[in-house]
Design goal:
This is Stage II sporulation protein M. With 313 residues, this protein is mainly alpha-helical. The chain contains 13 helices and no strands. 80% of the residues lie in helices and 0% in strands.
């Protein structure tokens, strides 16, 4: 890469680091120092003795002095979700948005395929589930599957399974992002086929009031977990100006934080699915209220808060 392009790609970043250094917390200062050190190493390797090398050396020196001058701040754990996590969502917003668009496209494919192939729903959801649900529909309880187990047993099982799916979606990012895309695609197609199944029985709205009561948090979290896998996989595939191994380590760290931070949301989704969704058959308004509250929570936390934090930078 030519020196002029290296400078053009990083000029605004360095300028921001220089201007905001005094107002940053110690953890951000340390993270910026690591990033500056990597840029400095690159400049020393490819542009030795250049002005950009001298500039980065001086800037990194001021950050190093700032780190030694500040005491280490010990933040309570909850600050991770109020400060660091929304910042991660903002930083990787484009990747997470791509994961959402890809997932929604897979849902459309599942719905369309089920509409044009009578056997597709059974192929995706399995004969046992389809036959059981048809029996529940005929009995007047389309969502009867949510009443089959003890609430607490169901809560633990569902929550642990959702967390497992999220970490699998993330870990499959190691397969050059393709593994994560497959997990998102498979889950999207399954959701699309599921929704068409109820549409075919004239129960689409009823099923949405029931399923999306917990699905708002659950599906959002799975999409973000997939985005976390793409963050890791893409960091290896597209290192930019960084060394590939360093870029991968950064992407893996950010991705792991993104997926680990979803655990409380899976707990909330599991609780709603186990203790609230079971009442949606008899009282659809219960599902409607849960959907509205969940949607407000998702939009405020995963969209509005990261947007505000990004604009403050």
């Amino acid at each position: 890469m030519k020196e002029a392009r290296f400078i053009a790609l990083n000029r605004e970043k360095w300028k921001g680091m220089e201007e905001r250094r005094e107002s940053l917390d110690v953890e951000t200062v340390a993270a910026n120092f690591v990033e500056l050190s990597d840029d400095l190493a690159y400049a020393r390797t490819f542009y030795p003795g250049s002005d950009v090398e001298r500039y980065l050396n001086a800037l990194a020196g001021t950050y190093q002095a700032s780190i030694h001058a500040r005491p280490l701040e010990r933040k309570p754990l909850w600050r991770f979700w109020t400060d660091e996590y929304p910042g991660l969502v903002a930083r990787h917003g484009r990747t997470l948005a791509f994961a959402l668009v890809f997932f929604v496209s897979a849902v459309g494919i599942g719905f369309f395929s089920a509409a044009h192939d009578a056997d597709f729903v059974r192929l995706i959801l399995g004969d046992h589930y389809v036959n059981m649900t048809i029996e529940n529909i005929e009995a007047g309880k389309p969502m009867g599957v949510y009443n089959d187990s003890d609430a607490w047993t169901m809560f633990i099982s569902i929550t642990l399974n959702n967390i497992k799916v999220a970490f699998v979606a993330f870990a499959f990012g190691l397969l050059f992002s393709a593994g994560t895309l497959w997990v998102l695609f498979a889950n999207g197609v399954m959701l699309g086929a599921f929704q068409y199944f109820f549409y075919d029985y004239g129960l689409l709205f009823h099923s949405m009031l029931s399923v999306w009561a917990h699905g708002t948090f659950e599906i959002t979290s799975i999409v973000i977990a997939g985005g976390a896998g793409l963050v890791m996989g893409n960091a290896f595939l597209f290192p930019g100006t960084y060394l590939r191994l360093y870029s991968f380590r950064r992407g893996a760290a950010d991705g792991l934080k993104l997926v680990a931070g979803l655990v409380p949301f899976f707990v909330v989704a599991g609780f709603i699915e186990s203790f609230v969704t079971r009442y949606a058959d008899a009282s659809p308004v219960v599902g409607a209220v849960a959907i509205v509250l969940s949607a407000i929570g998702v939009v405020c936390y995963f969209v509005v808060l990261p947007y505000k934090m990004k604009n403050k930078e």
